[in-house]
Amino acid sequence: MTNKSIQKVNKVSPPKREVNTTEEKLNKMNTTRPLSLPDTQGNGLRPCGTNTKLSAAQCGEEDNNTITLSHIDAFEEDDIFSELRSLWDEQTRHIDHILATHPEAYPVRLNLRHRRPWRRLIMAEYLILALLNIAAGIYTLFAFPSFPTITFQTNIS
Amino acid sequence: MKVDARQHTGFLKMLRECEGTLIKVCLYFTNRRRDDFRDLYQEIACTLWKAWPTFRGESDLNTWVTRIALNVSGQEIRKRKRLPQFVELDESFYDILADEATDLCYHRLYDLIDRLDDDGERKLLFLYLDRKRLREIAEITGSTETAVKQKLYRIKQKLNDLKTAEDD
Question: Using CB atoms within 10 A as the burial measure, which of A79, A114, B6, B92 is most buried?
């Protein structure tokens, strides 16, 4: 949680006092936990929409009237994610270092010209075959307009 | 395709700016094999080049690039699943990013991540690890912030289970 958020939390948190009246006791039972309280079970953020009642802040939802935890950094309290993130940051630093120190030496370079030319070749082949077929059909139609009739007459004789 | 010189320069500049993100995406989605890495990088770069004229600058450049890169990676993963599986040789990405000290880091990092079999989960975890904001993640994945949080929570549980199973 950032310093700003902590300040907001301090402002929002109501001062603790004894619950005196019955109405207050009932209200306390029916409401969810105060927005400023962290998850007491130590699970960090918990998902919304489950059967557990969660306040907007615990869900991390943005709400103009409440504290916002819009950045999911709240997960960082958890071991597995923080461990992965620290390793990820190490990787990022390493990559940035390589890119900064060897901007032209990185082995992967964009090469648009030689991108799988065989695919285009096959497509071109199909296209040429299709065009030849059409051309042959048109030629047959115009060169031998009476071709079917001749065949018919030949059969009769 | 006619190439406008200004467009070309802009594209190369964009590629340079987002190269770190592209490399991370390629490392994340390719099991760190050199050929796969190069293929995926090439595929993403080509897709970006095709889509570059349509970029209107309405969203952040890095967000736009990440979204395209993740989509292409998803397609490539699906494609690769249909192909026969190859045996991984020792020659891997280590000679690209060769450094003995970082080998262990990468090994530890991807040891758990590689066991996530769901593409959507892998994408989400990538975005989370890459410190994208919740709104950005929702924008890139095309879902709501609440849904993203739920899914991240489930991923966390899954990773915890995997780690526990490994420890046992």
Answer: B92
